[in-house]
Amino acid sequence: MTEIKSGTNEFYVEDAGEVIARIEYSLGSNDTIVIKHTRVSEDHSGKGLGSQLVNKVAEYAKAQNKLIVPECSYAKKVLESKSEYQDVLAK
């Protein structure tokens, strides 16, 4: 299992001290989390790190009773494709 770390308005994955994947968000109005960007380094693409990061934000949103506004097209695609996250998507 990949260790996902948290920072200020972000979750990320490191490999040998280098950030190889990151999802950035901001706190919006009305108790929302706005996902801004999801990035995975080219050397590590295709390993599922991006979707793991989106899942982490979704679980965080559930725990904090917040809704997600996915401005990032990748995050939007992942969240909309999973039935278990429909309740955290802002309408």
From TrEMBL:
Gene3D superfamilies named among the record's database cross-references: 3.40.630.30
Location of the N-acetyltransferase domain: 1-91, 3-90
InterPro entries: Acyl_CoA_acyltransferase, Gcn5-rel_NAT, GNAT_dom, GNAT_YJDJ
Pfam family, one: Acetyltransf_CG
UniProt cross-references to PROSITE patterns, sorted A to Z: GNAT (PS51186), GNAT_YJDJ (PS51729)
Domain of life of the organism encoding this protein: Bacteria
GO molecular function terms attached to this record: acyltransferase activity, transferring groups other than amino-acyl groups
Protein name per the record: N-acetyltransferase
Organism: Perspicuibacillus lycopersici
Taxonomic lineage from the root: Bacteria, Bacillati, Bacillota, Bacilli, Bacillales
